[in-house]
Design goal:
Blueprint (H helix, E strand, L loop, with lengths): L1 E5 L7 E4 L1 E2 L6 E10 L10 H7 L2 E2 L4 E8 L11 E4 L8 H4 L9 H5 L11 E2 L19 E5 L3 E4 L5 H4 L5 H13 L6 E5 L3 H12 L4 E6 L2 H10 L3 E4 L5 H6 L5 E6 L4 H9 L1 E9 L18 E4 L7 H13 L9 E5 L3 H10 L4 E5 L4
Helix pairs in contact: 5-6
């Protein structure tokens, strides 16, 4: 197959010929139709991450058609249309408690680029091993090997080339609001960062009936789109009086949501809270959270993975909202060919595109 391979942190992706190995019993071979590009895919632009994983096939918001299944797979069959999300073991206490995003093996299954036993199932032209289990899918390729735990079977009439981002970024933003905050009608929220994750939170807050939705970002075009998607106010991220611009004359916000992982922004996300308010952090950058303990008086902070979602339950819910016009995430999407992956990455980093989606094949 053809795959976009990243061989070093400072090299562009290169389209290469890659050979996939045999499926294990719980694995599923998926022909990729479309795949979103998420900022988590850019973790390998860190030299230490790239050194540990590369050469690697990334991509973890895949959507496609099942081509073959392992001997133990019972919940999918060839021809099924599926979205690909994060992997989990299914048997640890968090998984059995309905919280697979906090699976004991989450890092090994999703961030290592390998199976739990350390193996891969892809080789390059010279026979070298290529990491292809990024979020148990590595879907920047014509084919991806997923597991029965991280596929979500969807209606065959849905546009697979559009839906991939529901598997991670959009699920994270919307889930943080709907599954973790349980934001109620009339409550207030401020969202820091109007990328795909932040915009998903805005749309989720609107459909939950939030009374005030404030969005903070540096890009004027994104702030304008945030207003279209449900924000009641927007604030430039470089405003000198940022806290005052956000809370106005009120006591503070009920919730804050940070997608940036920038130290100063995370601190501000706590400083703007009202007493008993809650800050939720999801950014995958390298910033440290540095705050005065007094800011936590009566307030809480948590770091949330994957919107605390059960993908097989939450992704169909998001699709239903989209079909009813309540979650118009398609307004965030711009499509690229797989061969244009480097341009997609550049446009994502510059802010020119909120959610790049690589179209790999037709359904």
């Amino acid at each position: 197959m053809k795959a976009a391979v990243l061989r070093a942190h400072d090299l562009p992706y290169r389209i290469e010929d890659v050979t996939l190995g045999a499926l294990e019993a719980d694995e599923v071979l998926v022909r990729v139709v479309g795949v979103g590009m998420c900022h988590t895919d850019m973790l390998l632009r860190s030299p230490s991450m790239a050194e540990a994983l590369a050469p690697a096939i990334l991509g973890h918001e895949g959507a496609g058609v099942v081509e073959a299944v392992g001997a133990a797979v019972t919940r999918a069959r060839p021809g099924d249309h599926v979205l690909l999300s994060f992997d989990s073991c299914g048997w640890c206490a968090p998984c059995l408690g309905g919280a697979p995003a906090y699976c004991i093996q989450f890092m090994a299954r999703n961030i290592s680029g390998r199976r739990v036993d350390g193996t891969t199932s892809a080789t390059g032209p010279s026979g070298e091993a290529i990491a292809n289990r990024w979020f148990a899918q590595s879907s920047f390729a014509e084919y991806a090997i997923a597991t029965e735990r991280n596929i979500v079977v969807v209606d065959r009439q849905l546009p697979l080339e559009l839906l991939g981002p529901l598997g991670c970024g959009l699920q994270t933003g919307a889930g943080a609001v709907l599954n973790e905050m349980w934001l109620g009608a009339g409550q207030s929220i401020v969202v820091f960062g109007a990328g795909a994750v932040g915009m998903a939170a805005v749309m989720a807050a609107k459909l939950a009936g939030a009374g005030e939705i404030v969005v903070v970002d540096l890009h004027p075009a994104r702030l304008e789109l945030a207003l279209e998607l449900g924000a009641t106010r927007v604030v430039p991220g470089d405003a000198a009086d940022l806290r005052e611009r956000i809370i106005g004359d009120g006591a503070g916000m009920d919730f804050s949501f940070d997608t940036t992982a920038v130290t100063a922004v995370m601190a501000t996300s706590i400083a703007v809270l009202a007493p008993r308010g809650r800050a939720v952090l999801v950014g995958a950058g390298g910033g440290d959270l540095v705050i005065s303990p007094s800011l936590l008086a009566g307030r809480s902070v948590s770091y949330v993975l994957e919107g605390s979602a059960v993908p097989q339950l939450f992704i169909p819910e998001l699709i239903s909202y989209w079909q009813r016009g309540l979650f118009p995430f398609d307004k965030l999407v711009r499509t690229y060919a797989l061969e244009d992956i480097n341009q997609a990455e550049a446009d994502s980093l510059s802010g020119a595109t909120i959610k790049p989606v690589l179209v790999v094949s037709s359904p």
